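# nightly structure sweep
# worker-07 picked up a monomer target from the shared queue
# config: single-sequence mode, recycle default, output format = structure tokens
# input follows
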Amino acid sequence: MNYDIIDKLKFDDKGLIPAVVQDFYTGEVLTVAYMNEESLKITLDEKMTCFYSRSRQELWRKGETSGNRQHIVSVKADCDYDALVVKVIKDGPACHTGNESCFFNLLYKNEEQNDFSIDALYKLIEGRKTEMKEGSYTTYLFTKGLDKIMKKVGEECTEVIIGAAKHSKEETIYEISDLAYHVLVLMVEMGISLDDIRNELDSRHVIDHKVKQETMQ
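# output follows
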């Protein structure tokens, strides 16, 4: 591990530097913690977040007791070298309260802006399967079972093709959205997570990159 970059960092008078921890997949800010030089080196060596607790005045590895570890993807310093952004893939909730992020106390939200995410939609669909909310179309699909869900996915595929054949961008967007929703329902029904799909696509990206390199030789 090359520690040269650490020499450029500007730790405060207590030897600490703030670290903004961000979900690699969703971009959501999970927490803001502090690192000293030792905890940063541990983070880089072990590829999992390690912080310095200002209240306990000791090192703490995230998830050491809860199991909710954070596997680092990248660590970047800002332009002044006095703050870090750490992108992670998390094993579980980032907050000790059980919330996915420590930032859940809403002070203000611009209602004109949509904060939709595919991860949030997936969790909503998961909730419909476990809670079986009465009157919910999603719950209806889970009640009918896999055959019904597969039939709907097939129907929506056809609708996408029809929209595209008409060269209608608006209709195709609408039908792709329907298809995406029903595919998510199918995933939940079969126990397939978004990470399963991300990992599969990522593995294909690596393969494509290797093939491209080989063809250029």
